[in-house]
């Protein structure tokens, strides 16, 4: 069995679903079920005895110890995190609590479990920490892409809290010998993403006839990674990654935000045309995010060179799959877009109009 934290969130749930498509090994899925965690995403696993769900906060050491003692996992894949920059600006305390304190508590519980294993199981154990490219800060247009040796320079409460968790994982390897692995990924997109992030937000607003809010001048650049490709990369790192190493996971798809929105509008014009005009007519430029990083870009050559991984999807094929999924799963979107979510959107975007 492996233990997955945050396995009801966007990337974690996609990982769990992908895992069971390719493996019959059990998963202990640990998730606090905050606003971004949704068991509805995992509905297809109901009745699957190999998917064991535990509603547990990773800051709860006693609950973690009990889970380790009962299930004895051979590996941990740690997704659980607060992950939205805008939310971190409005309320940084939750990000420090979950991303820094939670990772510390999980590391200590895992270290106790790892120390109790026999020599063979101890050598085979892995703690894989899933992080972000945002820990590296911002790039100019002329800068080279982020590599695994790029110095950390986080600029938001979110990225600072993730940087802190990365440093803890590194320290637990170097100090205690914990067999850790870290991945730093670029912007994920795909099915089951909570509709506060750019792509699902634009799809939802477009279909509802609402403005499509684009921060600043729309020229901020991100490297887009289809979530299925990210899950495949994590499986490779978990299986064959070198202990103590960090691997960057990117999609080789640098796009300006406004390019992403234009492409989305064009796809929706084709797949779900309006009665009149284009979805591009709904684009509205709004006040920029404080401290908005200008460009992220990942150099994923180490992962390809050492483990043979590279993304299967282009931005165009991945986005077409994503838009098709959202058009076919409106009930899921309606379910997660609760009153709390609507209140958040109003809080974040009303002040930027």
Helix/strand layout:
Blueprint: E1 2-5, H1 10-22, E2 27-31, E3 51-55, H2 61-71, E4 75-78, H3 85-90, H4 92-115, H5 119-124, E5 126-132, H6 157-176, E6 180-185, E7 187-189, H7 198-208, E8 212-215, E9 221-226, H8 227-240, E10 246-249, E11 254-256, H9 257-271, E12 283-286, H10 301-307, H11 315-328, H12 330-336, H13 339-350
Parallel strand pairs: 1-2, 1-4, 2-3, 4-5, 5-6, 6-10, 7-9, 8-12
Antiparallel strand pairs: 9-11
Name the features.
single chain, 353 residues, alpha/beta, Rossmann fold, three-stranded mixed sheet, 13 helices
Structure description:
The protein has 353 residues and is an alpha/beta fold. It has a domain of 246 residues: 3-Layer(aba) Sandwich (Rossmann fold), CATH 3.40.50. It has 13 helices and twelve strands. The chain has a seven-stranded parallel β-sheet with strand order 3-2-1-4-5-6-10, with helices on both faces. It is globular.
């Amino acid at each position: 069995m492996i233990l997955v934290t945050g396995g009801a969130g966007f990337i974690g749930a996609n990982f769990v679903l992908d895992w069971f498509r390719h493996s019959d090994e059990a998963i202990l899925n640990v998730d606090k079920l905050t606003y971004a965690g949704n068991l509805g995403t995992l509905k297809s696993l109901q009745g699957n005895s190999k998917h064991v769900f535990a509603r547990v906060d990773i800051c709860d050491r006693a609950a973690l110890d009990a889970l380790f003692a009962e299930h004895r996992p051979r590996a941990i894949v740690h997704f659980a995190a607060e992950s939205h920059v805008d939310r971190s600006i409005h309320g940084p305390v939750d990000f420090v609590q979950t991303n820094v304190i939670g990772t510390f508590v999980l590391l200590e519980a895992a270290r106790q479990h790892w120390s109790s294993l026999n020599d063979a199981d101890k050598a085979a154990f892995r703690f894989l920490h899933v992080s972000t490219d945002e820990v590296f800060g911002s790039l100019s247009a002329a800068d080279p892409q982020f590599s695994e040796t790029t110095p950390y320079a986080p600029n938001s409460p979110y990225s600072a809290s993730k940087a802190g968790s990365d440093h803890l994982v590194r320290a637990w390897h170097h100090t205690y010998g914990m067999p850790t692995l870290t991945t730093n990924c670029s912007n994920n997109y795909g099915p089951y993403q909570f509709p506060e992030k750019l792509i699902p937000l634009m799809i939802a607003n477009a279909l509802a006839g609402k403005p499509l809010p684009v921060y600043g001048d729309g020229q901020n650049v991100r490297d887009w990674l289809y979530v299925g490709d990210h899950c495949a990369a994590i499986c490779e790192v978990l299986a064959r990654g070198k202990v103590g190493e960090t691997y960057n996971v990117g999609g080789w798809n640098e796009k300006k935000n406004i390019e992403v929105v234009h492409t989305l509008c064009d796809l929706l014009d084709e797949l779900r045309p309006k009665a009149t005009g284009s979805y591009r007519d709904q684009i509205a430029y709004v006040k920029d995010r404080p401290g908005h990083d200008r460009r992220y870009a990942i150099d994923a050559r180490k992962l390809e060179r050492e483990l043979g991984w590279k993304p299967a999807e282009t931005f165009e094929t991945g986005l077409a799959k994503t838009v098709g999924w959202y058009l076919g799963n409106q009930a899921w979107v309606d379910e997660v877009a609760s009153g709390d979510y609507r209140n958040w959107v109003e809080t974040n975007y009303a002040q930027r109009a």
